[in-house]
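ok so i was messing around last nite and threw this chain in just to see what happens. nothing serious, just curious
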Amino acid sequence: MLLPLLVAASAFIGAWISLVLHESSHALAGHLAKLQIREIHLGLGPTVFRTRLLRMEVSVGTIPLTGWVRTAPQLSFSKPANLFFVAAGPIMDIVWLGVLSGGMTIYRGTELAGTILAPAVIVQMMIVIGNGLPRHAKVDGQRVPNDMLALWKIARGRDPFEVLRQQYLNRLRPYMSPDDPPWHPTGQSDRVAFHVFKPDLTYEDITALEDELTHTASASERLLLIDAAATKILAQPTQPNSRLDALLDRLTESAVAMSPELPTLKGTRGAALARLGRHEEALNVLAQADNSNDFNRCLNAAFRALAHSHAGQKEMAAAEFETSIAILRSHDWAGGIAHKIVSAVCVEAGYPTP
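result:
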């Protein structure tokens, strides 16, 4: 009875050791290649451990079948760096198989070789073969290439972040001063882009976000990060005494203090004040907000409506809501950030959602 248990335990522990070595190799290679590592996840199934280490999210599942290491968007993309990053895992798989096989040779004929090392070697051989075949795998609910297929695509492909780099620069321009030097992507830009392009903002993101703001030296990128985070909070339904609303207040106040003349930030600050129930301040600030395009006009009207609603001015609130919704319907914004924000404001004010 003891022998089968030892064999099973060896196979299970061997799979975990292999997985840890594989993903750690990716993370170390990424660090050496100056990539911004955001997340390391080990194992499938329910997460049993989660922590934040060296500005990375580290989590562990229950079954040692797969894992991943995620980087921030690479605005400063380097093909050699990515090849090194992706190749590190398969190389470690082969090295570890060699170590285990060497152990089998040294301890041949012993109980250690038969019950402990042999199952670990078999598991490692299966891992090497499985990882060595180019294919797609299901990771975190998404279909992604495994390491060998990723290596092939990186070696043959163009810069996959070219479009994202231009999108980031377009997002950054409204916050740049004429005195700013020409923008070039850096590791800091990669980290900011991770938060900017992340689809939502959760309670778990607050610590990472505030940590990033502390380390972001560029004023324009700090303003972009603040405004992007505030916009995501505004798109969520309000909750009494919410940590996100407290963060919204802090972020928008600091942004306006950094750049008091920027109309875009006035709109975000006015929206935050309306969300927080400070209707008189909200209306004063929104009167100075940017109305240069339909997107801003739509949201400014929605938050003026919310401020009027908090002040008990129902007719004025209804008129502003009608203006906001009319602009919303004149564009194909269904499901977008403007639609989410206006819908959240309507729900808070008790007005029919668009």
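not much to say yet. The chain has two domains: 2-156, 162-349.
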